Amino acid sequence: MDTDKCTSLAHAEDNILSQEGKVDVTSVEYQRMPESLLNLSDSEIKRLNRQLVRKMDFYVLPTIGILYILNYIDRQNLAAAKLQGIMEDLHMTTEQFATAVSILFVGYLPFQIPSNLIITKVSRPGMYICFAVTIWGCISAATAAVNTYGQLLAVRAILGIAEAVFFPGAIYYLSAWYTKTELGKRIAGLYIAQQVGNAFGGLLAAAILHLDGVHNIAGWKWLFIIEGSATVVIGVICACIMPEFPHNSRILSQLERDIAVWRIESEAGAAEGTEDESALAGFVEALRDPKLLLLILCNMLSQAQGSIANYFPTLIASLGFSNTISLLLTAPPYILAGIVYYGIMFYSDRKNTVYPIIIVCITIAIGMYVIPMVTLNVGARYFSMMILPFASVGPQLLLYKTINLHLARPISKRAAASALVNAIGGTSNIWASYLYYAKPHFYAAFGTLMGCAFLFAATITLYRRLVLRENERLDSGEAENIAKVVKGGVTEEMVQLNWRYEMY
Question: Topology versus the membrane, per the UniProt entry (predicted)?
Fold first, then answer.
């Protein structure tokens, strides 16, 4: 055994937190190391790990990001279509339009759970996700053919079912590749792609508006045709690029596969392809975990705050601008949000913290909800619109990081928990769609969101107390206390690895 490896073993008891591109080598983890890595020095392993992360960032992140841009453009284009005459052409009332927005979630939410259980068992998750992308692209393009309100409802409900595969599947997929010190920034990358979709969705919609009447086709129909068709084409291309799970990826050498699996196993005792827990068993274990209920409630409250994305063009239009200018003005807030998201998650990964950032975001959001309710000043109101996208949606990034690290194992449990939190939490988008009326102050919407913010702060604080108590039990070393923690969702392997609830 070489000097570097001996030195690593001698300092195993320090258990220093790993940084991105580095591996935390402890005696327990060393015993789990595959044979192909045993003869490598610690410096060689670190070099391979950094090389692996760069390759993952080159193949995994861009494809997932592009697909998420398409996901959000296709999901939010109905809000842009509202400014291009869809309500008049289909003779819809304001309440009927709200139903058309919210019915997407009727199909979207329940199908996330079985889809995420399926993705743990398929050998090519990238192909599975991209297949769903092409399907929803076809459905989105078909929206241009609707002629009645009832037909629009039917198409939107089916669109929700197809889109249910993507977001929880993408979060799970990223957590299968990245460690706890890397995952936050990659989730931020996903949300930055969301903001790019929001920003350029508005810009694209403004450009497509000029096609109104070409070939006797309304502008809002061109919107669905062009964006839906682009989704189909790009979905097919991405299917050829997205890699599989680390253990069977064709873009990695065997040595890279070994280190990709081992670095995930080193954190929580198991990785994709190395665990045989059934999907149903993982689902049941997720339901038994007391932390899940609190995380679901947190996400419900956070998603309610994030519902402003469904009506953002309407909120901007309430400032008195034309439809085209309103669509253009939706871009800057989303661009700012993307920048802030990366800063938030970079800080979270570097400092290994989540809770204080969530509280800061909630505090800022509360202040921004007050402004449109108390003033008609255009500058002040647009300032609040600049801040709200990152302040109201930012905590969701941190919640998804929490879910994938605090409910990590078994693997099927993590997949089920992620889908349950997103699916049940996402029901807020259904009822919140009926709050955005009575412009320009939107008292019902902003008042309700403010109440959600206060309740969110209280709930996440209660969650923090719960996980800190669990850490105290683990630190005690007493068999009785450790048994309680294991009953609450920590595996025996995680206990052996000296695992703790972090970031809170």
Answer: Multi-pass membrane protein
